[in-house]
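Sequence, please.
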């Protein structure tokens, strides 16, 4: 069984036992979170598509860790104009482990 969920402005295809990194969530490590923006649920034979969300669909996940991803360098440069601006960015993330997928 798998589902497509939306969180943090992105969509993820998840199944039970998967670990994924999503945009930072306000939850403590070890706690359970319910992701209720479920766009699609499939058990391999039957597919249920939401309009836009599946009614009663829920994905339960456990927060495993919080962290920051690798640094991304941002460079602005204009040749022959003596213009160079550099800075870095590290995005916060929450690592989730998918526990169960339910439909309504």
């Amino acid at each position: 069984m798998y589902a497509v969920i939306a969180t943090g402005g992105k969509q993820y295809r998840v199944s039970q036992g998967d670990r994924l990194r999503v945009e930072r969530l306000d939850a403590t490590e070890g706690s359970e979170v319910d992701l209720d923006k479920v766009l699609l649920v499939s058990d391999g034979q039957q597919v249920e598509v939401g309009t836009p969300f599946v009614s009663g669909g829920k994905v339960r996940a456990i927060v495993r860790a919080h962290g920051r991803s690798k640094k991304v360098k941002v460079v602005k440069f204009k040749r022959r104009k003596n213009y160079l601006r550099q800075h870095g960015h590290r995005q916060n993330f929450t690592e989730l482990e998918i526990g169960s997928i339910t439909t309504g």
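Residues 2-102 form one domain.
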